[in-house]
């Protein structure tokens, strides 16, 4: 099976492609708070409706949902934590033909950008 | 030849005729005995070499007039003809009386007696100096052209007016891993992507007929099996009457450029999406207000 990551058409991406245990591979903080849990996160578990964030010294749980808007030609994620709610635009999703590996790029309203890898 | 039944005086007339002919024709003419000993040179020989007939007679003098680089080869070829009776033919340089060498085509045939023995050798030397230099110049230019064509960054080719490709440069063969036998004519279809080929064939079929310069971008398969994108440009070479003599074509690898264009386009799309995302609530509010205003 080819290990090549293929770009997924974001206008037709199934929600299930976005679920799973994601590892933070790369991030650009930009103007976001560098001490926020998201800026420090090492992994995100998007499982059914539940969300779990892992950082070196903390762990947070919440819920998540895939959202679509007619003004956007791609989906975004609504992430609900106990203290705040965040939105993250899916800017790119790539995966192998068999789905064994994926790469997800998110852009948060705070300016934070994140590349998540799975596994 | 002089006929035995010829009238008295005929041998002299024939001799005169031979002499006239031998001096008239543009070649240097010579005759040897069966051993290669020269017995005759025509006036043109004397005029060219500056040697009188007496000076010129002998087994080796002619060889001494040859360019030093040609002497051994000429001696070997002439020696072979003398030993076997095979026709003699060689290209060599003779020294003229002005001190310069000129290229000649030396040719000789043996004349046999009734018993089949060689009686004499009749030979000529034809001045081919100008053709030889022109040929050398042509070879030099061809070599320069080949060096240039093989070392330009592009894949290159030449085609007949109807599009039959008869030449590719080395880079084409290096990239595709093919040879002329596989590529000649319409063999190039073998390295095209099947999804793109119908459109390419349709386009070039019209382009050959139109006879105007054309450009087209399509993928070509490399010898590693991977496809890369090439911008192809073809220009017709015309004669004075404007008829197409041949096509000159190049294929420039634009894969990286296409990737960069793609990345740039993606970045632009991403930026637009990010701006729309950041202002999503605001945009919805604007739309709601517009709707309200429209209803009033």
CATH level-3 fold name of chain A:
Lipocalin
Low-confidence stretches of chain B: 1-6
CATH architecture of the largest domain in chain B: 2-Layer Sandwich
The low-confidence runs of chain A, each spanning 5 or more residues with pLDDT under 50, are: none
Let me know the number of strands of chain A: 9
| Largest beta-sheet characterization of chain B | 5 strands, antiparallel
CATH class type of the largest domain in chain B: Alpha Beta
Indicate how many domains the architecture of chain A comprises.
1
Order of helices and strands of chain B: HEEHHHHEEEHEEHHHEEEHH
Mean pLDDT of chain B: 90
How far is the N terminus from the C terminus of chain A?
Answer: 16 Å
- Helix/sheet category of chain B: alpha+beta
Proportion of residues in helical segments of chain A: under 10%
Q: Helix coverage percent of residues of chain B?
A: 40-55%
Q: List the quaternary state of the chains.
A: heterodimer
Overview of the molecule:
The complex is a heterodimer of chains A (119) and B (296). Chain A has 119 residues and is mainly beta. Helices cover 3% and strands 51% of the residues of chain A. Chain A has an 8-stranded antiparallel barrel. Chain A is globular and about 35 Å long. The mean pLDDT of chain A is 91. With 296 residues, chain B is of the alpha+beta class. Chain B folds into 3 domains: 124 residues, PAS domain (Beta-Lactamase); 102 residues, Beta-Lactamase (2-Layer Sandwich), CATH 3.30.450.20; 37 residues. The radius of gyration of chain B is 37 Å and the shape is rod-shaped. Classes of the chains: A mainly beta (119), B alpha+beta (296). At the A-B interface, strand 7 of A face helix 10 and helix 11 of B.
């Amino acid at each position: 099976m080819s290990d090549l990551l293929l770009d997924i058409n974001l206008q037709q991406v199934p929600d299930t492609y976005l679920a799973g245990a994601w590892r933070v591979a790369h991030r650009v903080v930009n103007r976001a708070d560098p001490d926020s849990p998201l800026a420090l996160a090492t992994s995100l578990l998007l499982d059914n409706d539940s969300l779990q964030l892992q950082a070196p010294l903390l762990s947070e749980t919440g819920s998540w949902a895939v959202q679509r808007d007619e003004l956007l030609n791609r989906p975004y994620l609504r992430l609900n934590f106990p203290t705040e709610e965040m939105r993250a635009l899916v800017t790119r999703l790539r995966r192998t033909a068999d789905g064994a590996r994926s790469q997800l790029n998110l852009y948060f309203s705070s300016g934070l950008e994140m590349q998540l890898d799975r596994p | 030849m002089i006929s035995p039944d010829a009238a008295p005086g005929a041998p002299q007339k024939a001799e005169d005729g031979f002499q006239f002919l031998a001096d008239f024709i543009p070649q240097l003419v010579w005759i040897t005995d069966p051993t290669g000993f020269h017995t005759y040179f025509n006036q043109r020989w004397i005029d060219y070499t500056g040697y009188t007939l007496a000076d010129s007679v002998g087994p080796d003098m002619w060889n001494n007039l040859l360019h030093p680089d040609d002497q051994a080869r000429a001696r070997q070829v002439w020696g072979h003809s003398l030993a076997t009776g095979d026709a003699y033919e060689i290209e060599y340089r003779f020294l003229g009386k002005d001190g310069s060498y000129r290229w000649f085509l030396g040719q000789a045939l043996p004349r046999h007696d009734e018993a089949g023995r060689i009686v004499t050798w009749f030979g000529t030397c034809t001045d081919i100096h100008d053709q030889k230099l022109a040929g050398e110049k042509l070879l030099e230019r061809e070599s320069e052209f080949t060096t240039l064509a093989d070392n330009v960054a592009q894949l290159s080719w030449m085609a007949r007016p109807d599009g039959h490709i008869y030449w590719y440069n080395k880079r084409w063969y290096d990239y595709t891993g093919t040879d002329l036998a596989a590529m000649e004519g319409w063999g190039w279809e073998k390295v095209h992507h099947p999804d793109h080929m119908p459109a390419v064939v349709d386009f070039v079929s019209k382009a050959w007929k139109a006879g105007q310069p054309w450009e087209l971008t399509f993928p070509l398969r490399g010898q590693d099996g991977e496809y890369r994108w090439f911008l192809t440009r073809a220009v017709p070479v015309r004669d004075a009457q404007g008829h197409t003599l041949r096509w000159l074509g190049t294929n420039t690898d634009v894969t990286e450029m296409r990737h960069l264009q793609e990345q740039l386009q993606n970045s632009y799309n991403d930026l637009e999406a990010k701006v729309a995302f950041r202002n999503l609530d605001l945009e919805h509010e604007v739309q709601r207000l517009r709707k309200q205003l429209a209803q009033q």
